[in-house]
Amino acid sequence: MVSTTSKKEFRSGFVSVIGRPNAGKSTLLNHLLGQKVLIMSDKPQTTRNRIQCILTEERGQIVFLDTPGIHKPKHKLGEYMVGKAKESMRDVDVILYLVDLTAEYGPGEEYIIEMLKQSKSPCILVFNKVDLLVSKEMLMHKIQKYSALVDFKAVVPISAKTGENTDALLDEIFAQLSNGPMYYPEDEVTDQPERFIMAELVREKVLQLTHDEIPHSIAVVIEEVEEKKTLVKVRALIVVERESQKGIVIGAGGKQLKEISTLARMDIEALLGSKVFLEVWVKVKKDWRNRMDSLRNYGYGKERE
Ligand SMILES: Nc1nc2c(ncn2[C@@H]2O[C@H](COP(=O)(O)OP(=O)(O)OP(=O)(O)O)[C@@H](O)[C@H]2O)c(=O)[nH]1
Q: Where is the region G2 (predicted)?
């Protein structure tokens, strides 16, 4: 059981995992999470987009963004997928750049290196498949070569397959994160696409009904989805920055919040094709705005202040 209230330090953040196809991104994430959550990445509609996986420990929570492998796009779909991967590099707290040690350095890696040079997020270079390493000199040579190109915060050789050195990698990631909230319940390892859409529907209603009174610094988190016999119970949390905003969202006598949840419930019922009991809460989190850029990256919103 992870307790955030009793602990002073709880680090959290968003980590984008990038690399060429076959670098071992899914293998690494499945290993870190201790289960095969990325099996869905075989399905076209998910591999084209970003998938997020959540790792929660006593010391903090990492929200990983798995991205489609980056390659020089040759067609529209490829362009779209690479666009998704590039998008996921913006505003994240850390970028993990995974390189297959056994693959030759070529235009594919060059393309990613150029992208990294333009990125402002700290980047950790991960050399994967160290279990296949034949000479230490080769590893040293690669480390020098890559380090000369980009200012990496750390370089960590690992084997995603055997798990070798992945603990050290986690230490490096946590070292780059600052104190932050627990974004997802501790037992959640991946998010269902429906949850994102549900959160978006609630957020949309808040923005529609409060017009300009509520800035874009709100977030909606679906905290619980429980399938009952005849209906689906959904609990949503609207996170605002200030007490005054909480008042606006709730409205006099709770009228506004009631309307938000009624409209959102109707949309969610249409989405799920089932009756829904929607419970909506509003909470003030002062440091929320700082994390919003990362959240936007996850589809929580596209607006820029
Ligand atoms: N020997 C060895 N093989 C690995 C390691 N990590 C991944 N692989 C293998 O490399 C292949 C690609 O791994 P994936 O995890 O699917 O790679 P990916 O980066 O998610 O690939 P895309 O989904 O195409 O972007 C698989 O056959 C893995 O079993 C490792 O550390 N050692």
A: 45-49
- Kindly give the distance from the C-alpha atom of residue 26 to the centroid of ligand 1, in angstroms, as a whole number: 7
**What pLDDT does 94 receive?**
95
Q: What is the mean pLDDT of residues 134-156?
A: 94
Quick one: residue 246, left, alpha or beta (phi over 0 = left, psi -120 to 50 = alpha)? alpha
CATH number of 193-300: 3.30.300.20
Q: Which CATH class is domain 11-176?
A: alpha beta
Identify the pLDDT of residue 7. 52
Give the model's confidence band at 50: pLDDT under 50 very low, under 70 low, under 90 confident, else very high. Answer: low
- Which of 18, 27, 33, 67 for a ligand 1 pocket mutation test, highest count of atoms within 8 Å of Cβ? 27
CA 19 / ligand 1 centre spacing (Å): 11
Spell out where the chain has E strands.
11-19, 51-57, 60-66, 94-100, 123-128, 154-157, 219-227, 232-240, 276-284
Residue 165 in this model has a pLDDT that exceeds 90 = yes
ipTM greater than 0.90, yes or no? yes
The reply to whether 193-300 shares the fold of 11-176 is no
